Amino acid sequence: LEILVTILNENDNSPVFAQPNLSRDVPEDTKVDTAVVAREELSASDADLDIIYYELTTTVQDTDGYFAIRGVNNPEIYLQKALDYEKFNSTTLVLYARDRPVTSPDPANTATATITIIIKQSDTRAPWFLPCTQLHNDASVCISSPYFGRVNITEMPRGPLLLEPGPIYAVDPDYTINDRIVYSIVGGNTDEVFSVNADTGNLTMNKIVTSPDSFLLQVMATQASNIRKYSVVTVEIKAINKSNFAPYFEKSVYNGTVFVGLPRRSFVYQAGDPSTPLVITAMDQDFPDV
Asked: Residue limits of the Cadherin domain (predicted)?
């Protein structure tokens, strides 16, 4: 008697990942649809030779939707949405491997792999002149104000010019890169009156100004290792007559009168003359006609 025995494969083995823990550094400026972890590194094996079904989730709040797998049977992880280092700089993904579809009524054996994604800040932003104000809805933009300064006619300051709201200063907003900033004057410097220190941003004078004038300088801040990243700010310098005298009041004491019951913004009158409003005036010998 010849007996044929067929051995039926029992689903008694779970899928196995070759590397259950992976870590990847992903540049912030990685293009959408770029593969982050290759299929070969994430494919699970199964001793039962079952077809493997994959599912990807994230464990970090507000980081879902950025990474995905190519398909239910293709575990390659790719970038699905553009990254922003200011929003998050790391996340943890969990890849599930099952030997049955999620919708199958049969019990499935499951394996998991943990993928840690570290976002590396890229050189995406031009220098910021400080102080500046960031937009509430866009942390990549910071709006700076012009700088202002004054110089006296026929005088040559020895040191850097004093400016408002402060000295010329720019930073690399990609702070983990923190590239060195180089300063230069690119416009408005008539007769080369002014110079800027390439390293510090300090503004100095090369020659005196002999008449009242106004200079609108354009100062550029460039990243030392990436000349395509630059910003330009306006610096207004006014040349004025030197003030030799302090202003003074015409009187040392002023006396006024008010009446009970007057509404707000009513005049204060001169004491002893209730028909003439009280006027306080000052003079300056530098400006006799003002």
From this structure: 18-129, 145-249
